[in-house]
Design brief:
about 110 residues, mainly alpha, two-stranded parallel ribbon, two-stranded antiparallel ribbon, about 45% helix, about 10% strand, globular
Length: about 110
């Protein structure tokens, strides 16, 4: 988590913070997290106890190949990339406030 927070701060230096305004013409910095993405895709709060199988299943259900995802970190990265895809498509739900940065998850 510390590395992710450090990376987020560095990215914020170069890209505007996503404030809820959609624009496919400019790159933005946004926050998401694998558990939130998984719960959004499942339409329910998931137990962390089954995160490995649940998250892999959700990626497969989204039409993604998971053969090369050899550990949970890669699975989580794929979930976050899927959130970015939904951001570009405009199919997201946000939490938080625009001033501090919105948390982005896919919208069913």
């Amino acid at each position: 988590m510390r590395n992710g927070a450090d990376l987020y701060r560095l990215i914020m230096l170069h890209y505007r913070l996503f404030d809820g305004q959609y624009s496919t013409s400019s790159l933005v910095c946004f926050e998401t997290f694998p558990h939130g993405v998984a719960c959004a895709l499942a339409g329910a709060i998931l137990s962390a106890k089954h995160k490995c199988s649940d998250r892999r299943r959700l990626l497969r259900e989204a039409g993604l190949s998971i053969d090369s995802l050899t550990n949970i970190d890669m699975v989580d990265a794929a979930l976050c990339a899927l959130a970015a895809h939904h951001l570009m498509a405009g199919t997201i739900k946000t939490y938080g406030d625009a001033e501090e940065g919105l948390i982005v998850v896919p919208k069913l």
